[in-house]
Structures are given as structure tokens and as C-alpha cells.
Design brief:
The protein is mainly β and 114 residues long. The protein has 1 helix and 12 strands, in the order H-E-E-E-E-E-E-E-E-E-E-E-E. The protein is globular. The N and C termini lie far apart (32 Å).
């Protein structure tokens, strides 16, 4: 369901809003430029996905794994990241404002976030 919703939002050039997903697994998905607002993702797994230039606003990531994903140039506003894993994540040029990150693990490949 989540992959279909993301693909449709990108195809229609619209934001993905007020979605809740749990236990979804997405691999190698191109989510570049995705706008995700007021969404809650629980225990979802994103592997080798590209979120370059994505916008995450008023969202919650709970217990998610986004290992080896690319977030270059992404924008994070009022996002809660709790208990997530992000080994090998690339965050170069990402911008974080009013976000909360706790109990997460990971060795980011690049962390030059502002």
C-alpha cells in the first residue's frame, strides 16, 4: 500500500498527506522529491531508497529502518524520529528544523546536515 501511495503521489506531483503505515518494506524505490506531511510510519523498512530533495513535515518515523537510503538535500520540519536505524544513510545537505531524534542507531555514510 505505501509503495503504491508514494508512486501515485510522485506521478501526480502532489504531496502525500495524513497517511499511516506499519510494517511496510520498500527496496530500491525512487522517492526523490517526495513531499510527506502529517504522516506516521511505524516499523517500516526502506532499503536503498532515494529520498533526495524530499520534504518531511510534521511526520513521525517510529522504529523504522532506512539503511543505505539517500536523503541529500532533504528538508525535515517538525519530525519525530524515534527508535530508527539508518546504517549507511547519506544526509549531505539535508536541513533539520524543530525535529526530535531519539533511541536511534546507525552509522551514516554522510551527515553534513544543517
Amino acid at each position: 500500500m505505501l509503495e503504491a501511495e508514494i508512486s501515485l503521489a510522485l506521478r501526480e506531483e502532489r504531496e502525500l498527506e495524513a497517511l499511516e503505515a506499519s510494517g511496510e518494506v520498500l527496496t530500491g524505490l525512487d522517492c526523490a522529491g517526495l513531499e510527506l506531511r502529517r504522516c506516521t510510519l511505524r516499523k517500516c523498512r526502506f532499503v536503498d531508497c532515494d529520498f533526495s530533495g524530499a520534504v518531511f513535515e510534521q511526520a513521525a518515523w517510529q522504529g523504522c529502518d532506512f539503511s543505505n537510503c539517500r536523503f541529500g538535500g532533504s528538508v525535515w520540519r517538525q519530525v519525530s524520529v524515534d527508535g530508527c536505524k539508518g546504517d549507511g544513510g547519506q544526509f549531505t545537505g539535508s536541513r533539520w528544523r524543530d525535529c526530535t531524534c531519539c533511541r536511534g542507531t546507525g552509522r551514516a555514510a554522510s551527515r553534513r546536515a544543517t
